[in-house]
Amino acid sequence: MAEDLVLDTAIRDWVLVPLSVVMVLIGVLRYFVAKLMRSFQPPDRKVLKEGQVVLRARNLKAGANFIPAKSFRARRFYFTNEENGLLHVPKDQAQNAQAQMFSDPNMAMDMMKKNLSMIIPQTLTFAWVNFFFSGFVAAKIPFPLTQRFRSMLQNGIDLSTVDVSYVSSRSWYFLNLFGLRGLFSLILGEENAQDDTQRMMQMGGFGFDPTKCLNILLAMELYHFEVVVAVVWYIADQLVGANALLVDLLHALVEGKMGDLVDAFPSTKLAGLVRLVTHDEEEVDVAARAAELHHSLSAEKDSVDIVQHEWVLPKMEQRAEETLRKLVK
Amino acid sequence: MVGAAEEAQLNRLESQVDNGGGGVWEYLCLVRKLKARRSEKVLKHGLSILNDPKSRSRLGGDEWTLYEQVAIAAMDCQWLDVAKDCIATLSKKFTGSLRVGRLEAMLLEAKGAWADAEKAYARLLEDNPLDQAMHKRKVAMAKAQGNISAAVDFLNKYLEIFMADHDAWRELAEIYVSLQMYKQAAFCYEELILSQPTVPLYHLAYAEVLYTMGGLENLQAAKKYYASTINLTGGKNTRALYGVCLVRYPGYFTHGFSPS
């Protein structure tokens, strides 16, 4: 389509700018609310120790070639041996941690509290955008796009002949959602650039690949599902005073859903997803972290197991010889 | 550990501050960041800031960190009443705080009241069993009292939990060397090399421990580690050069002439 739509500048003044301003303000507000609501969770000894064990195992893997073969083998045995190796997790323990996470109502409450700070502003803003700013073209994207993007970007616009570069305000909302991270890092200081996508994508070494859109969509589905469950749970339990039956039904629902996802994802990614659901960098639930750590422990164990030791020190000797010769000359 | 460039900067700032130029606050911040132990200078300049209400108010929120720094420096120089004043100010502002509690226990330590200090640390550790600094203070106290085996015990227990703390491994290695338990010291140095393989200091220390242990295999390994120290320092470390010569000395008699 070669026609050029002329967009009213009033759109820019009254749609694009206010929407960005509102999102920035909501982000700042959320940061302060999160800071207020943050409860100090005392560090769990077991989790702390396991974290340190993982660090030490990684150091072992990294520096394996710098220590003599005998000491490396002794250390490897210490970490990976079947009876009391530090990284060895007996099979049943690994399963329990995850099941435990979803059958404990307290944890669901905690989860809900953390998710609240993200879900409510997002939902509200999205609803607001849809209600007030739908049905018209808001902006033109400067580069041409294929027809496949039409459903994503032109949601409120019911004309199928308009060029795909003309998008609705919903896409401006999403653009802001993903793009304001830089602004937040400027305003709130370097470490506090907590925008939603970054929190969603921080996986702490699980190799969760954010470019796999399917994974993200499924993960978001799980996330929203968990939130819905948690909210219903909360309402049922606290406000209505429902009986245990309802809670049990929800347990079953959640576990069924988790079961589907267990089939869909390999175990390492699943642990990462569990972390996605709990959704908060600092205060990941103990069981979730335990589940993660069990996965990371076995991952570390495998990687330490396969390290081939090649003592690099003899090469150092030769290099030292050359250095000295150069010095003497 | 303080790198050479940072040390040069620290010395420069120190001389600047001593000769009356400005930059006192930067000097104090640098000392705090590098954890260098320049207690007299810190005490002198820190007190000059704290006693002057104008410059104190200029610091704003950092004034409390300065109080803490000056308190520790005062304890190091045994100016205990200065330390007590600083801690009193801090505890008035932050009542019931863990950090201030730790400072108070350190003051008891500095006074030499070991039993009271131990009781204070035990109480603090009950509330916060996973505080790293507290454990380390216990080790330091045991060491100061001359009870080295207790210090080793505490340090081992600490390292069971916090096994990725390389400063603790270093401390343990030095204690073992002083106790002449060379095999254990070698183990600790191996841990250090694993965590930071490019620091020549650890290679050198490991080589020395191996050389001290003796035995053909250890001497050969020591030679290799001296060589890697030479490699890492570009040949500038005299001790490593001596080490290589000394290690080869018995080698002349067992292996005959070897090149270089």
TrEMBL record, chain A:
This protein's name: ER membrane protein complex subunit 3
Primary residence: membrane
Gene Ontology CC: one annotated term: EMC complex
Membrane topology: Multi-pass membrane protein
Pfam families referenced in this protein's UniProt entry, alphabetically: EMC3_TMCO1 (PF01956)
Cellular compartment(s): Membrane
Transmembrane segments: 14-33, 119-143
Keywords, in A-Z order: Membrane, Transmembrane, Transmembrane helix
GO BP annotations listed: protein folding in endoplasmic reticulum
Family according to the record: Belongs to the EMC3 family.
Automatic annotation (TrEMBL), chain B:
Entry membrane topology: Peripheral membrane protein
Domain of life: Eukaryota
Subcellular location: Endoplasmic reticulum membrane
InterPro entries listed in its UniProt record: EMC2-like, TPR-like_helical_dom_sf, TPR_EMC2
Keywords assigned by UniProt, alphabetized: Endoplasmic reticulum, Membrane, Repeat, TPR repeat
Chief localization: endoplasmic reticulum
Subunit structure: Component of the ER membrane protein complex (EMC).
Task of the protein: Part of the endoplasmic reticulum membrane protein complex (EMC) that enables the energy-independent insertion into endoplasmic reticulum membranes of newly synthesized membrane proteins.
PANTHER family recorded: TETRATRICOPEPTIDE REPEAT PROTEIN (PTHR12760)
Similarity annotation: Belongs to the EMC2 family.
Official protein name in the record: ER membrane protein complex subunit 2
Organism, scientific name: Cocos nucifera
